[in-house]
Write a structure and sequence with these properties.
Helix content: 40-55%
Shape: globular
Strand order of the largest sheet: 3-2-1-4-5
Number of helices: 7
Strand content: 5-15%
Low-confidence stretches: none
Number of domains: 1
Structural class: alpha/beta
Mean pLDDT: 97
CATH class: Alpha Beta
CATH superfamily: 5'-nuclease
Largest sheet: 5 strands, parallel
Order of helices and strands: EHHEHHEHHEHE
CATH architecture: 3-Layer(aba) Sandwich
């Protein structure tokens, strides 16, 4: 099973000064599952990397995608309807986070590597009572 990841974890892995860096790095290193990023998180990650760490950090991330170090999951047509449902049900959840939920449901993934406990902690996905949030 792949490890579903959100923007915060991918950014924290790159930024050694981020408060989540050590926890994220330790968890990903020991978990050994392949990282799976919804395509919707990529613009957020690349924006943050370029703005906060510079062009080289953004480029290294894109190269890691090209080298299949991070797998990318596209949204299917049915996922978009679920994204809208999640957004409608939870006022605090935007499109990117809702897309993570939709992909988790479709792929029956129960674990999400995230730094966002506040938003993902309130979501009740269709396939499990709650997502297991790590690290």
């Amino acid at each position: 099973m792949p490890l579903l990841v959100d923007t915060g974890i991918l950014y924290a892995l790159a930024d050694r000064t981020d408060a989540w860096h050590q926890r994220a790095h330790r968890y990903v290193r020991t978990a050994r599952e392949r990282l799976l990023a919804p395509i919707t998180v990529l613009p957020e990650v690349t924006y943050l990397l370029r703005e906060r760490l510079g062009k080289q950090a953004e480029l290294l991330f894109v190269r890691s995608i090209a080298a299949a170090e991070v797998a990318v999951e596209d949204l299917k047509a049915a996922d978009w309807a679920r994204v809208a449902d999640v957004m409608e049900r939870y006022d605090a959840i935007g499109m990117v986070d809702a897309s993570i939920v939709a992909i988790a449901e479709r792929l029956k993934l129960e674990t999400l590597a995230t730094t966002d406990r506040r938003h993902f902690g309130i979501v009740r996905p269709a396939h499990v009572a709650r997502l297991t949030l790590v690290p």
